[in-house]
Write a structure and sequence with these properties.
The chain is an alpha/beta fold. It has helices at about 15-25, 30-40, 45-55, 60-75, 90-105, 120-135, 140-155, 155-160, 175-190; strands at about 1-5, 30, 80-85, 110-115, 165-170. The structure holds cytidine-5'-monophosphate and magnesium ion.
Length: about 190
C-alpha cells in the first residue's frame, strides 16, 4: 500500500500533481477541498456552512472535516494501491485524528510530499487560476488570508510528520513535468 499526503501552500500544485500521481500509481485521490466544493455546489447543509469559511479563506472546523473524511473512508471500497490525501491534514489536530484512524485500519502514511513554492509564484498562480476557476477564494484578499492561515495552522503539520520520519520537501518550482519527475523519484524510493 502506498498512502501519500501531498501538502503545501495554496497554489503549490497539490491538485495538479495529485492527478498525475493517481494515474501513474493507481491510487485513490481524496481532496477534501474538492469534497467541500461538491457540497457547496449541491447547496447541502454542510455545503452552506463550508462556504461561509471557504469564501473567507478560513478553515472549516476540524470536527467537520474529520467527519467528512471518516464517511468517505467508510464508503470507499476499491482495489486501488493506496490513497493520496490532497489538502488534508490542514491542522495538527487533523493529523492526530488521521493517525488514530489509520492505526485502526492497520495502515500508515508512506510519505508526505511538501511542495515548496515561493510566495510570489503562489500568488501569481492563484490569480491566474481565479480568472477561470470560478472559485470564491481565488482573489487577492482571500489569497492573502489563505496564506496567513497556511503559515499559522498548516505549516506546523510538517513538524508532526518530521517527527515520524515521513516528511519530504520537494522543489515545487518549474514545469509540471519537472515537478512530477521529482515527486515520482521520491515515491519510487518508498515502494
Ligand atoms: O485544499 P483546497 O485548497 O482545495 O481547499 C480550499 C479551501 O477549503 C481551503 O482554503 C479551506 O477554506 C477549505 N478546506 C478546509 N479544510 C481542509 C481542506 C480545505 O477548511 N482540510
Ligand atoms: Mg486543490
Amino acid at each position: 500500500m502506498l498512502n501519500i499526503i501531498i501538502c503545501g501552500a495554496p497554489g503549490c500544485g497539490k491538485g495538479t500533481q495529485s492527478d498525475l500521481i493517481v494515474k501513474k500509481y493507481s491510487l485513490t485521490h481524496l481532496s477534501t477541498g474538492d469534497l467541500l466544493r461538491k457540497e457547496i455546489a449541491m447547496k447541502s447543509d454542510l455545503g452552506i456552512i463550508a462556504d461561509s469559511y471557504i469564501s473567507k479563506g478560513e478553515l472549516v472546523p476540524d470536527a467537520m472535516i474529520i467527519d467528512i473524511l471518516l464517511k468517505y473512508v467508510e464508503n470507499q471500497h476499491d482495489d486501488s494501491n493506496g490513497i493520496i490525501l490532497d489538502g488534508f491534514p490542514r491542522t495538527v489536530a487533523q493529523a492526530e485524528a488521521l493517525e488514530v484512524m489509520l492505526k485502526q485500519l492497520d495502515k500508515e502514511i508512506s510519505v508526505l510530499v511538501d511542495l515548496k513554492v515561493t510566495e510570489d509564484e503562489l500568488i501569481d498562480r492563484l490569480l491566474i487560476r481565479g480568472k477561470t476557476s470560478g472559485r470564491s477564494d481565488d482573489n487577492m484578499e482571500t489569497i492573502k488570508k489563505r496564506l496567513d492561515v497556511y503559515h499559522k495552522l498548516t505549516e506546523p503539520v510538517n513538524d508532526f510528520y518530521k517527527s515520524r520520519n515521513s516528511y519530504t520537501p520537494i522543489d515545487g518550482m518549474g514545469t509540471i513535468d519537472e515537478i512530477f519527475g521529482r515527486i515520482s523519484e521520491v515515491i519510487d524510493s518508498k515502494r
